[in-house]
Amino acid sequence: MEAVSTGLNIRFPSINTFNASPPITAIPPCTTSMFLQQCPPRIFPRLSVFQRPHVFEKARTSSRRQSRGIVCSMKKLAETEAIPLEENPRRLAEKLPYATGVYAMHDKSGELQFIGISRMVADSVLNHLRDVPQLCGSVKIAVFDVPRDRALIDPWKFWMDEHIEATGKVPPGNEPWNITWMEKERPVKDDLRLKPDSYMSFSLPVEQLVDKLLNENEVLVFIKGSRTDPKCPQSYRVLKILYEQMVDYETIDVFDEVYNRGVRKALKAYSDWPTFPQVFLRGNFSGGADELDKMADKGELYELFKK
Questions:
Q1: Which of 138, 145, 180, 231 has the least C-beta neighbours within 10 A?
Q2: For helices 289-298 and 233-244, what crossing angle results, to 10°?
Q3: How far apart are CA 106 and CA 127, in angstroms?
Q4: Coarse DSSP helix, strand, coil percentages of the chain, rounded to the nearest 5 percent
């Protein structure tokens, strides 16, 4: 299939699964094949043959042949079934494919917003839902078993050309100036501490400090270890559930005897619960990992903190 010039500026989809720091690349008003010939090596880091022209031509021919075979077997964008995104993330994650493919994000009114490619479609879609939920109503997906990143270009272009032919414009998220759909860097939060400095003594009894933190934070989790290095499987499980359910939360390390001395003993009496982790939702004790898992499975956790 020969590339067709659209005469439009198009943002190449975020290749966050190909490169840890995806470049912002806009396709100039030329053919897609011309764009690919001009791509710097860092866009497709696995294809080191860019530095070896005699090998590059062979790899490019093989990728092109594979891409054409994929496109021939693809459904048109208009014929692909949409997967609704307005439901419990746990249920949604079971429906999304953890595979390589092309995906088209539509808003709640059904308007196409962005066409992307990913080595892990489910992760990309869930990240978009976490970053821009107001623009995520449904998604259409086509998955492939391809060894080369370049083989995804023609399937992406196949859907893009179909949309341009029908509307005369590219999706808003693929405009050169639009960075809405680029994966956001999420800064890692620090764990909360009962006292700000190791040399300071507690200003209040530990029980009052705990009570103060519970009133100030909607979701507070007392875990073994830190949020970046949980020290037990149950603590890790709680953090995974909260992330999966898109809940913003704070953590306190009950093993930290420098900043949180005495919190384990005080908390066991406070909640009348002998083990950790302990999860507090809006000031109320909700249990540990098993109880949180049940809430997530029923959709109660997502509904409670739904944006």
A1: 145
A2: 20
A3: 15
A4: 40, 15, 45
CA dist 296 → 90, 291, 293, 299 (Å): 7, 9, 5, 5
Residue 155 Cα distances to 3, 42, 102, 110, angstroms: 12, 21, 7, 21
123: how many CB neighbours lie within 10 A of its CB? Answer: 16
- Extract the tokens encoding 61: 């021919």
Q: What angle do CA 274, 277, 283 make, to 5 degrees?
A: 90
CA distance 180 to 113: 10
Structure letter (DSSP) for residue 177: T
HSE of 47, CA atoms in CB hemisphere, 13 A: 24
Contact 289, 277 (CB under 8 A): yes
Structure tokens at 177: 């100036």
> If we measure between CA atoms, which residue out of 226, 221, 285, 213 comes closest to residue 253?
226
Strand ranges inside 85-187, DSSP E: 101-106, 112-118, 138-143
The bridge status of strand 138-143 relative to strand 101-106 is antiparallel
Per-residue pLDDT 10s for the chain (307 aa) are: 433 434 455 655 654 443 333 333 333 333 344 334 444 333 333 333 334 444 444 444 454 555 555 566 688 999 999 999 977 788 888 889 988 899 999 999 999 999 999 989 998 998 999 889 899 999 999 988 766 667 778 889 999 999 999 999 999 999 988 888 987 777 788 899 888 776 667 667 888 888 888 889 999 999 999 998 999 999 999 998 888 888 889 999 999 988 888 888 888 888 888 899 999 998 889 889 999 999 888 888 878 876 5
